[in-house]
Amino acid sequence: MNHRDIPLMLCIPILVLSLPVIAEDPLETDQEEKVVVTAHREEIPEDQVGSSVTVITAEQLEQSGKTMVLDALRSVPGLEVARNGGPGGTTSVFLRGANSEHTLVLVDGVEVNDPIAPTRAFDFGNLAVNNIDRIEILRGPQSTLYGSDALGGVIHIITRKGGGELSGYLSAEGGSFSTMRATAGVHGGGERSWYSVSIANLNTDGISAADEATGNSEADGYTNRSLSARIGHQVTADLALDLFLTGSSSDTDLDNFGGAFGDDPNSVGESEQFTAMAQGVLTLLDGDWRQNFGIALTDYDRSFHNPVDAGHPADQSTSRYESRLMKIDWQNRLRLDENHNLVFGLEAEEEEGESAYFSDGMFGPYTDIFTRQSARTTGFFLQDHMKVEERLFATVGFRVDDHNRFGSEATFRAAFSYKAGDNGTRLKASYGTGFKAPSLFQLYSSYGNGNLSPEESSGWDAGIEQSLAGDKIVLGATWFQNEFDNLIQFDGGSLTYANIARAKTRGIEFTGSAEPADSLHLMLGYTWTDTEDRNTGEELLRRPGRKFSLAAHYQITAGLGLNIDLVQVGARADLDFSSFPASRVDLPEYTLLNMAAGWQVTRRVRLNVRIENVLDEKYQEILGYGAPGIGAYAGFKLTL
How far is the C-alpha of 207 from the C-alpha of 628, rounded, in Å? Predict the structure, then answer.
């Protein structure tokens, strides 16, 4: 679909809104319980959590029409997304100003940060919205429960469990940039079993990653195929078994760099990711003691090929990166009495990776081989969730991890939530420490340093939440501050990685939700963030000083709904590598407006239309790399 088709597509939402509703049956969705899992590794009510948490539900994902998880995260307070180009581009997430590698990412409890990535960060560029029940974003240091990498917080994607009568669906969507997306799924179960399986396929011609605005015209296509499955069985009254599987495969056209003359017609990247976890749940003492035994695998295989072409007749390169993470864990939930809920357990993991890079150009051939290396970590954690008279809820915990390279690291965390009286006021606060182990690349590559120490952090937040009009309006404000020490950076003097950096972040998050009517739901967020490189005094790159988000869902009739998302991102610093040494520049602020409409034509047929970047904003999240302009899409979902 070309941009000249957009005026016609813009009319579709207007036509849909003017049509009568044929069926009165609304889309059936289960009422979402206000519970979270990530904060305690067990379900607890959201209003008992002292840390700041945001939950994105399956219903919200469907209403907004989001197809990639990174787009669903854009409106989360305290979180910033930066992608280099269009679909499939490498994508970083910054939680409360922390580095992207300081966010631990889980899928059904399985760690998916890539061990062979230079900093061990997770790339959100290929994570599709597929079979997701909810996404939990837990902000602040969380190493006490999750160990390494959780300095800034945890993003946990939880898939659908299934159960009930057999049901399935098919969906298809097409639109701008020659985009086609199809999904299919089935879920159900019996009295003692459950299953949920979903597949998705996305193809798009994309945009020029090097940005059309700087004279680049070659579009970079993208293909993504994903699988998500969960199968479980209640073997006995006390024992249940679960199997979780996720996988994705993607092909991405790449450019040499962002900015003028960055186009490349034949540079491609291929990525495969697979995760699996087998889990047994044993319940004893009439439900007071629950044990989870799990074994998990995360496997990555990435390759890049850039052969010669007319624009680069003498330059070529190829590379491959393979990694694997194995983890065994034993987790216990022990209810000591009605006021103490204890979680404790043991974890053991081994990560390994290898890579090979080859290039040939005007300066001759160059080869860099990173032979297979590994690292092992074991950890013990203990956390108690306490309550006093259903008003005061406190969480206290500690953890000790032992790494086979640098030794032991201890972290702790305390948080509380207090319901002040009966007027809807809730006070909350938390303090915690975190650490991040050096990555395999930082330890063992040709630039590696085997004497590296772990990165460390400490952080606190304190906030207030006020409910009004019988919980129809909820307002909140949270102040946060984090300090990062022993950060690992490349040292130009020694030409190796070293613990030479420090940073500090602070800010305020404002949140609000309102239901002026049963058919209208509003959510807003505003974040002010101040970051500082404590070695140079300059602000950290790609972290905006302010961000505002507004989401509105209006259920016009029983079967017809309209969704609007608005995100305003303030100016932020970046580096311009067109000169040497690279100079700092400011990326201008931008506004993204997205609209989506869903019409439940019959009980089994749903039509969807959406328009992304309605204002056709021209912006860059990373200097030199383009972002998609206005795009319109339409499709259907058939429930079987």
Answer: 7
* Number of independent structural domains in the chain: 1
CA distances from 210 to 5, 40, 224, 262, 569 (A): 24, 43, 21, 5, 21
Distances (CA, A) of 258 to 91, 121, 271, 374: 14, 21, 21, 34
Q: What percent of the chain has pLDDT over 90?
A: 90
Structure tokens at 367: 């080869």
The three-state secondary structure class of 12 is helix
Q: How far is CA 366 from CA 199, 316, 317, 361, in A?
A: 40, 11, 9, 9
User: Which residues face 336 on adjacent strands?
Assistant: none
Residue type, 120: R
Strand-pair partners of 240 = 234, 281
Spatial CA neighbour of 97 closest among 451, 442, 614, 546: 546
Q: What is the DSSP string of 524-566?
A: EEEEEEEEEETTT-PPPTT--SEEEEEEEEEE-SSSEEEEEEE
- Tell me the sheet residues that pair with 517: 520
- Phi, then psi, of 183 in degrees rounded to 5: -140, 155
Residues 6 or more apart whose Cβ sits within 8 Å of residue 451: none
CATH code for position 156? 2.40.170.20
| pLDDT tens readout for residues 481-497 | 999 999 999 998 889 99
| Domain span holding position 537 | 3-639
Cβ atoms 42, 333 nearer than 8 A = yes
How many CB atoms lie under 10 A from the CB of residue 222?
26
Residue 527 and residue 97: Cα distance in Å, rounded? 11
The pTM (predicted TM-score) of the whole model is 0.94
Helix (H) or strand (E) holding 181: strand 179-188
d(CA 508, CA 525): 11
Rounded to 5 degrees, what are φ and ψ at 74? -60, -30
Is residue 581 reached through a cis peptide bond, with omega within 30 degrees of 0 on the bond before it?
A: yes
Question: pLDDT by residue (tens digit) across 560-596?
Answer: 999 999 999 999 999 998 888 889 999 999 999 999 9
Cα-trace Rg, the chain:
24
Cβ-count burial 382-412 (b if 16+ within 10 Å, e if not): bbbbbbeeeeebbbebebebebebbeebebb
Q: Tell me how crowded residue 614 is: count the other CB atoms within 10 A of its CB.
A: 19
Residue bearing tokens 């209640």 = 234
H helices present in 179-243, as ranges:
none
Strands 103-107 and 153-159: parallel
Instruction: Return the exposure string of 19-44: e unless at least 16 CB atoms fall within 10 Å of the residue's CB, then b.
Output: eeeeeeeebeeeeeeebbbbbbbbeb
